[in-house]
Task: structure prediction
Amino acid sequence: MEIVTRTDHPELQEAATVAFRERWPEFIFHDDVSRQHMGRVRTYFARYDVMVIDDGAVLAGGWGVPMAWDGTVQDLPSGYDEALVRAVEGREAEVAPTTLSFMAAAVSASHDKRGLAAVVLGELSRRAHEDGLGHVIAPLRPTCKHRYPTVTMAKYAGWSRPDGLSIDPWIRTHQRMGARVLCPAPRSMVIEGTVAEWEAWAAMVFPVTGEYVVPDALNLVMIDREGDRGVYVEENLWVQHS
Result:
């Protein structure tokens, strides 16, 4: 088993994409901010796009972006989208980064429960510290929050087990690595589309205007049938690693 960057093994790009997509709902791949910036992210920050491979198979992967952050809650981006923009625009403006933000990590379903997500995050952290970045943060998308779409992230993040760790498996993974919760990321992703597009992404029908519970969505999706528009504003959770 070894850790490599995607650019080290271009022949595994397709396998890596498959491993990532199986863990995420379809609507996540229709974020305009990601679409506009991901090409430059892959070019600028290839060092922070890693995979765990074994005998030619992709077991897990993850990526992050270096950006400027002054270490205060007030200076945090509003979430995933703004972190992506800050990283890309900062690179183009030659602003020195101080921080690595984890953006995503995924483990192939056939290799789950082996601690590989922590391996990926640990490698990204190692690279950040090696490069002199003083902070490591992440706008987490908690694994089980979709079961409670009407509950605020602030309230959900406060729910804990008797051992004091979060009820959420993904938050627990970060806590066990020494991370602490900072605050919600209130406008982490904004995904918009026509009603027909949302019906395709969600595999469900939206017969009237209103807010809907959509499978795997952390918050409600607002559907406006008269305006032919669906809008989803996802709230995530900022954590900081020690």
